[in-house]
Amino acid sequence: MAEIGKSISKAKDFLINNHLVAMPTETVYGLAANALNPDAVAKIFEAKERPTFDPLIVHTFSINQLPHFVSEIHPSLLKLAENFWPGPLTLLLPKKQTIPDIVTSGLSRVGVRIPNHPVALDLLSQLDFPLAAPSANPFGYISPTTAEHVRKQLGGRIAYILDGGHCDVGLESTIVGEENDTIVVYRLGGLSIDDIESVVGKVSIQLNQSSNPLAPGQLKSHYAPKKPLLIGQLSLLKDAYAGKKIGAIVFGYPEKDNSDVLMKELSLLKNYSEAAVNLFSFLRELDESDVDVIIAELLPEQGLGLAINDRLKRAACK
Ligand code: TXA
Ligand code: MG
Question: Using a 6 Å cutoff on CB, does residue 130 contact ligand 1?
Answer without folding.
Answer: no
